[in-house]
Amino acid sequence: MSTERTFIAIKPDGVQRGLVAPIIARFEQKGYKLAGIKLVQATPELLAKHYEEHVNKPFYPKMAAFMSSGPIVAMCWEGKDVVKQGRVILGATNPLQSGPGTIRGDFGIDLGRNVCHGSDSVESATREIGLWFQENELIQWTKIADAWIYE
């Protein structure tokens, strides 16, 4: 089976609202494997690297202030097509355009409080995982249930 990794972050609004367990459950119920998780207080330097394509945009200061306003749950998930499917689980970036059953559709209303971040490509996932995790923080393990998930 070919697997990939993605970076999923529960933003400060999701942490403050007590949505950590329900969000993790969505990925576990789908069948994805958690390879890394930690609670992080994001620094301005980390956020500038993570959002490097947005640093010079007018909305960046407000976004960076929000992302550093409280703890973030940083996660690395593994599985078949996990980057694309992770984005499906999260829903559209704007919660008002997210369907019911998605994390943002079920838990979000405003674009600036959309609960989660998810990598948008395998390349972005690799870069983002490298920013938020050291290699020794990612665990290689065998999930026994994989035989019941994958052919």
From TrEMBL:
- GO MF terms on file? ATP binding; nucleoside diphosphate kinase activity
User: What is the catalytic activity of this protein?
Assistant: a 2'-deoxyribonucleoside 5'-diphosphate + ATP = a 2'-deoxyribonucleoside 5'-triphosphate + ADP
GO biological process assignments: CTP biosynthetic process; DNA damage response; GTP biosynthetic process; UTP biosynthetic process
Per UniProt, the keywords (alphabetical) are: ATP-binding, Kinase, Nucleotide-binding, Transferase
The residues annotated as the active site are 117
The record's listing under CDD domains reads: NDPk_I (cd04413)
HAMAP family tied to this protein: NDP_kinase (MF_00451)
Instruction: Please state which protein family the record places this protein in.
Output: Belongs to the NDK family.
Q: What is this protein called?
A: Nucleoside diphosphate kinase
Q: What is the source species?
A: Huiozyma naganishii (strain ATCC MYA-139 / BCRC 22969 / CBS 8797 / KCTC 17520 / NBRC 10181 / NCYC 3082 / Yp74L-3) (Yeast)
